[in-house]
Predict the 3D structure of the following.
Amino acid sequence: MNEPAPRVSRRVTWLAVSALVGTALAGILVGAVLDRTLLMWGAPWARGIPVPAGGEPTPEMRRRLARRLARDLNLSAAQRLKVEELMEQQAPRIRATGDSVQAIVERSLAESRGQMMKILTPEQQRKFSTILPPGRPGRR
């Protein structure tokens, strides 16, 4: 009844641990870069300002940030206009960058999940799938 679990070679164990640690470090790095970038550019959601349901700042939110920069940096009217234009031009690029980072993280997590499943027994795989269901992290 209580049969011992099959032994896993040290190489496989270290491979799994390395994959998990690498994924964790990559996640921390990506998170830190995004956090600093969002704070530096004054992203509303990074400053605790509510963002619309779509998750993307509206043109009005960008204008509000431009007004704040104009006030805090004492920008001229011409500078403020250029800042607003720049923010509008960069919005699609910033959105695309966020989408590509998300895709990289999701691909890395899927890869780690696949490697983890190779290590586990069928019973462990079933339990693992209930603990961390396939799909996006944190989503069920």
Observations:
- The mean pLDDT is 77.
- Residues 21 and 27 are 10 Å apart (CA to CA).
